[in-house]
Amino acid sequence: SLSVSMKLAALEGDQMKRISAMIVILSVMLLTGCGHNKDISVGDSVYELMDSYESDFYWTPIWVYHTENNFTVVIQDRTATVQDFVVFSKDREVIKNRRIDLQDFDDLYGLLGTSKNEIERIYGPAHCRVGSGFINPGYITADAYLVLFYYDTSDMLTCVSKFDLLGSILDDPVEVVSV
């Protein structure tokens, strides 16, 4: 009976050691960030990011990843790596911005008929080029929209489309204005 009690005590001791070891291992993992998503950085592969984050919107070269309670809008380069990015809160506030000159477009209708050179003079170079062959210049706005410009053969603006980057509905632009 005494040997059975000693065996049970030894068994319980081994189980306690295992449980204690598991607690220590899990604590170290949590403290070192193991199991957590890393921050998105310039040079990351947009395809590898899909292993860590849910992609809410994709239209080459724009990706939107749901990162914790925020949304990271990524502009990829031609090698599918992160070139620039901006992080928005779910309330469309800018949390972090890396080199993207976010725009505000008050009157999209008023821009129709403007030359491509004039648009670039006013707003700077496009943040990205979208579409077949990356031909349509696009700008990201300060409130998380993608505004695309469409020019005719004489480089005059004939149509503007505005897409909600946080809305995940690529096929349904928020606003389209055209001549």
Give a brief rundown of this model:
This protein has 179 residues and is of the alpha+beta class. Helix content is 26%, strand content 33%.
Please describe what this structure looks like.
It is a single chain. The protein has 179 residues and is an alpha+beta fold. 26% of the residues lie in helices and 33% in strands. It contains four helices and ten strands, in the order H-H-E-E-E-E-E-H-H-E-E-E-E-E. The chain has helices at residues 2-32, 46-49, 108-111, 116-123, and strands at 54-59, 62-67, 70-76, 82-89, 94-98, 128-130, 136-140, 145-151, 157-164, 175-178. The strands form two sheets. Strands 1-2-3-4-5 form a five-stranded antiparallel beta sheet, with no helix packed on it. Strand 4 and strand 5 form a beta hairpin. It is elongated and about 80 Å long. The N and C termini lie far apart (95 Å).
The helix content is 25-40%
Q: What would the average pLDDT be, to the nearest integer?
A: 80
What strand line-up does the widest sheet have?
1-2-3-4-5
Biggest β-sheet strands, sense, barrel: 5 strands, antiparallel
What overall form do the CA principal axes indicate?
Answer: elongated
Low-pLDDT windows of residues: 23-36
The share of residues in extended strands comes to 25-35%
- Assembly type of the shown chains? single chain
Intertermini distance: 95 Å
Structural class of the secondary structure composition? alpha+beta
The Cα radius of gyration reads: 25 Å
Strands, count: 10
| Count of helix runs | 4
Order of helices and strands: HHEEEEEHHEEEEE
